[in-house]
Amino acid sequence: MIKWCSYCIHFIGECEPWGDYQISHGVCPACYQRLLTSDVPHPGPVQELKAFFRSMQRLARLDHPGDVARILAESRRLGIPAMDLMLGILQPLLVEIGLLWAAGRVTVAAEHHFSALVDDLLAHLRPGPDPAAEPGPPRLVLLGAEGNDHVLGLKMAGPYFLAAGVPTLTLLTPLPARELLELLDHHRPAAVGFSIALPEQLAQVQETARRIRRLPAPPRHLLVGGAAARAGLALDPALDLRLCRQLPEALALLR
């Protein structure tokens, strides 16, 4: 389930059942504290938010492009911040449409049209600071697994960590293992995050992780995320890889 605060209309996070891509509602920590002090905030337009999400679900199943301007205008009308639009609506819908495509319930064209729409929306959103303004070496390096051509998740994750104050280097094109090891040895980040779209991509990531662990100063955390990670993966315990279904799980390790 995709949980939003019913008062301030901010994305809270995803929760079980993981395969249910519908909006639920709760109370975020800030609104909960206001409720404790009797300063009760006014409930937000939860039903309108749900209707907006359902309209995006329908659009994702159609074999034609969406109207970027209309979607952005409606999200602004509802007061949805750019980061929440990315993580609370676009990201789960990308996962859902990928699963529907894999099950043969939507066409390849529909999946491609929705991916192109999300890419266009991301180009218009400015959810965090300019990566070029981030000083110093990266504390986090993000990249896709070999064979994972889906970069939209990385395009969302990079700004999320930058906005949270974590200097992040996002590699949209996978590096050969030797070049990646040289980069990590040079920058010595605290963590590396791999995005995995399909379970069969895990074997290559685990082999790369073995080589990373042999560096003179390896990263403290090796993280595995992406669509396949949400469904759960059996990781090699000897490599100390960490499965992250949600970005806040990774962020907590870097604070």
Folded structure, characterized:
This protein has 255 residues and is α/β, with parallel strands linked by helices. It has two domains: 123 residues, no CATH class; 123 residues, Cobalamin-binding domain (Rossmann fold, 3-Layer(aba) Sandwich), CATH 3.40.50. Helix 4 packs antiparallel against helix 6. The longest helix has 21 residues. It is globular. The relative contact order is 0.11. The model has no long low-confidence stretch (mean pLDDT 91).
Q: How many structural domains?
A: 2
Residues in helix, %: 40-55%
Largest sheet: 5 strands, parallel
Query: What value does the Rg take, in angstroms?
Result: 19 Å
By helix and strand content, what is the structural category?
Answer: alpha/beta
Compute the separation of the termini in Å. 26 Å
Total helices: the number is 10
Q: Which whole number gives the mean pLDDT?
A: 91
Number of strands: 8
Summarize the structure.
The chain has 255 residues and is of the alpha/beta class. It is built from 10 helices and 8 strands.
Main features:
single chain, 255 residues, alpha/beta, Rossmann fold, 2 domains, five-stranded parallel β-sheet, three-stranded mixed β-sheet, 10 helices, 8 strands, 46% helix, 13% strand, globular
How is this fold's topology laid out?
Layout: E1 2-5, E2 11-14, E3 23-26, H1 29-36, H2 46-60, H3 68-77, H4 82-102, H5 108-124, E4 140-144, H6 152-163, E5 168-171, H7 177-187, E6 191-195, H8 202-213, E7 221-225, H9 227-230, E8 241-243, H10 247-253
